[in-house]
Amino acid sequence: MTLIPLEDHIILEAIEEENKTASWIILPDSKEKPSKWKVIAVWEWKILDNGSRAPVDLKEWDIVYFTKYSPDELEVDWVKYLVIKQSSILAKQA
């Protein structure tokens, strides 16, 4: 199934982080959401305050960081995704 976000929404998927240190010490699982997320779907335009459109600053496979309470969860075919507005994205990894 292909998800297509509408307007200035972005669909994110979690990046599984390693739960072992360099010396192979296994770290306990955390109940918090992962801090790194990858963009899996983004609309090509964002709507500005004056109603005009501008290109989106993100593309698929970008790694992003966002405000903690801004995303909405979406589950499709037993896979969890986050849907977030572009304005809630704080930074992307270079």
Commentary on this structure:
- With 94 residues, this protein is an all-beta fold.
- It has a single domain, classed as GroES chaperonin (10 Kd Chaperonin, Protein Cpn10, Chain O, Roll).
- Helix content is 0%, strand content 40%.
- The protein is elongated and about 55 Å long.
- The model has no long low-confidence stretch (mean pLDDT 81).
Major sheet: 6 strands, antiparallel
The strands making up the biggest β-sheet line up spatially as 6-7-1-2-5-8
CATH superfamily grouping: GroES chaperonin
CATH architectural grouping: Roll
Counting copies of identical and different chains, the oligomeric state is single chain
Brief characterization of the structure:
By secondary structure, this protein is mainly β. It is 0% helix and 40% strand.
Blueprint (SSEs and pairs):
Layout: E1 9-14, E2 37-42, E3 45-47, E4 53-55, E5 63-66, E6 72-76, E7 79-85, E8 89-92
Antiparallel strand pairs: 1-2, 1-7, 2-5, 3-4, 5-8, 6-7
Key structural traits:
94 residues, 8 strands, 10 Kd Chaperonin, Protein Cpn10, Chain O, two-stranded antiparallel sheet, six-stranded antiparallel β-sheet, mainly beta
